[in-house]
Specification:
This protein is of the alpha/beta class. It folds into 2 domains: about 1-95 and about 260-350, Isopropylmalate Dehydrogenase, CATH 3.40.718.10; about 125-250, 3-Layer(aba) Sandwich (Isopropylmalate Dehydrogenase), CATH 3.40.718.10. The protein has 12 helices and 12 strands. The chain has helices spanning about 10-25, 40-45, 50-60, 85-95, 115-120, 160-175, 190-205, 215-225, 240-250, 295-305, 310-325, 340-350; strands at about 1-10, 30-35, 65-70, 100-105, 125-130, 140-145, 150-155, 180-185, 210-215, 235, 260-265, 270-280. The strands form 2 sheets. The chain has a 10-stranded mixed β-sheet, sandwiched between helices. The longest helix is centred in the middle third of the chain and has 16 residues, at about 160-175. It binds 3-isopropylmalic acid and magnesium ion. Magnesium ion binds near residues 242 and 246.
C-alpha cells in the first residue's frame, strides 16, 4: 500500500509529521510512504507548485496525505505558479471531485465551540463539497471595460454530469447516516444553481428512502449557527462548500479539528483512491513554532485508512485515540489550551 505524503507549506510539514507518526505506530506491514514537495516549497525548490514528479508520485499511490499550501512570499506570483494551484491541480488532474468534510463535536469540546454548548453538542453533519467545477475552474481573467476601468472576472458554471455524480455521492453517504440530504444553492439568483437544483431533484428519485431539502446558501450559513443539529448531509458546490466548511469548523470548536477526504471514482486494490487533508490552511503566522494542532491531519489519516486502504478498524482506533485525548482536555492553543504539536501527537500515540 503506497501513501504519497505531500506536507506543503507553513504548518503543513509539522502536522503531517504527527499524522505519519500515528500511521507508523499502527505497526502495519506493507505500507510504504513517500514524501514529495508541493506548494510554495515546491515552487522555491523546483519552480512549480505541483512539479511533474510530485504529480506522478501522487498518481502512482493508493492514497495521498496532504498537509497545507499557501505562502505569503508567493502571493505576487502569476496565479498558475501560486501554491494553491498545487491542491487545485491535484484535485482536477486526479478527478477527485467529491470532498467529504465531516463535522462532529468531540466530548469535551462542547464548551469550546463558538456556539452555546447545547447547540454545539447536536452537531453531526457531513458536508459533501463538489471539487472539480464551479467558479474555481471557470474562465477567469482581467480585462478593461469600455470606460477604461480594470475588471476581474471568474465564470461560474456546472454541467449536469458534474452535479449528478456529486449528488450520487451525497445520497449514498446519507444512506449510511440519518438518510437526509440538504442541497445548498443560490437558485433564487444564479442559473448555475437552478441547474444544480433541477439535477439534484432528478437524482433524488433514485433514493426514495432519503429525504431531500433545499436551502439557499445565505440561509444555510444562518441555520448552521442557529441550529446545526438539523443537518445530516449537506451537498453543495465548490465555492459554497469552501465557505460553509470553515464555518462548520468553528461550530465544532476549531478549524484545527476538521479532516477531509477528496475522492473520485478510481478504485485501487484496497479501496477508493483519494487525497486526505485537514481543512485548515498553512497558517504562516505560527509555522515552524510547534504550536499547530495536528488533530485534523491525524483524523484525515484515519479517513485515508478507512476509504483508500480498507483499514476501517485501524481508522476507528485512531479516531478513538483522538476522542480520548480530547476528553482528557488535551487542547492546543486553537482551543484555548497550551499543548503543542508534538505533545498532541504524543497524546494520541499514548492512547493508541
Ligand atoms: C480548502 C482551501 C482551498 C480551497 C484553497 C487552499 C485553494 O481553502 O481546501 O478549503 O479553496 O479549496
Ligand atoms: Mg477552504
Amino acid at each position: 500500500m503506497k501513501i504519497a505524503v505531500l506536507p506543503g507549506d507553513g504548518i503543513g510539514p509539522e502536522v503531517t509529521h504527527e499524522a505519519v507518526r500515528v500511521i507508523e505506530a499502527l505497526g502495519l506491514r506493507d505500507i510504504a510512504m513517500e514524501q514529495a514537495p508541493v506548494g510554495g516549497a515546491a515552487y522555491k525548490a523546483h519552480g512549480h507548485p505541483l512539479p511533474p514528479a510530485t504529480l506522478e508520485i501522487a498518481r502512482q499511490s493508493d492514497a495521498i496525505l496532504f498537509g497545507a499550501v499557501g505562502d505569503p512570499d508567493c502571493d505576487a506570483l502569476d496565479r498558475h505558479l501560486r501554491p494553491e494551484q498545487a491542491i487545485l491541480g491535484l484535485r482536477k488532474e486526479l478527478t477527485l471531485f467529491a470532498n467529504l468534510r465531516p463535522a462532529k463535536v468531540f466530548k469535551g469540546l462542547e464548551d469550546h465551540s463558538a456556539l452555546r454548548p447545547e447547540v454545539a453538542s447536536a452537531i453531526d453533519l457531513l458536508i459533501v463539497r463538489e471539487l472539480n467545477g464551479d467558479v474555481y475552474f471557470g474562465e477567469k481573467g482581467f480585462r478593461t471595460t469600455a470606460s477604461g476601468e480594470r475588471e476581474g472576472y471568474d465564470v461560474m458554471s456546472y454541467s449536469e454530469s458534474e452535479v449528478r455524480r456529486i449528488a450520487h455521492v451525497a445520497f449514498r453517504a446519507a444512506r449510511t447516516r440519518a438518510h437526509r440530504v440538504c442541497s445548498v444553492d443560490k437558485a433564487n439568483v444564479l442559473e448555475t444553481s437552478q441547474l444544480w437544483r433541477d439535477v439534484i431533484v432528478e437524482v433524488a428519485k433514485e433514493y426514495p428512502d432519503v429525504t431531500l431539502d433545499h436551502m439557499y446558501v445565505d440561509n444555510a450559513a444562518m441555520q448552521l449557527v442557529r441550529n446545526p443539529g438539523q443537518f445530516d448531509v449537506m451537498v453543495t458546490g465548490n465555492l459554497f462548500g469552501d465557505i460553509l466548511s470553515d464555518q462548520a469548523s468553528m461550530c465544532v470548536g476549531s478549524i484545527g479539528m476538521l479532516a477531509s477526504a477528496s475522492l473520485g471514482e478510481r478504485q485501487t486494490e484496497y479501496g477508493t483512491f483519494g487525497l486526505y487533508e485537514p481543512i485548515h490552511g498553512s497558517a504562516p503566522d505560527i509555522a515552524g513554532k510547534g504550536l499547530a494542532n495536528p488533530m485534523a491531519t491525524i483524523l484525515s489519516a484515519a479517513m485515508l485508512l478507512r476509504h483508500s486502504l480498507g483499514l476501517a478498524e485501524q481508522a476507528d482506533r485512531i479516531e478513538r485515540a483522538v476522542a480520548a485525548a480530547q476528553e482528557d482536555g488535551l487542547f492546543g492553543r486553537d482551543l484555548g489550551g497550551t499543548a503543542g504539536t508534538t505533545e498532541i501527537g504524543d497524546a494520541v500515540l499514548a492512547r493508541l
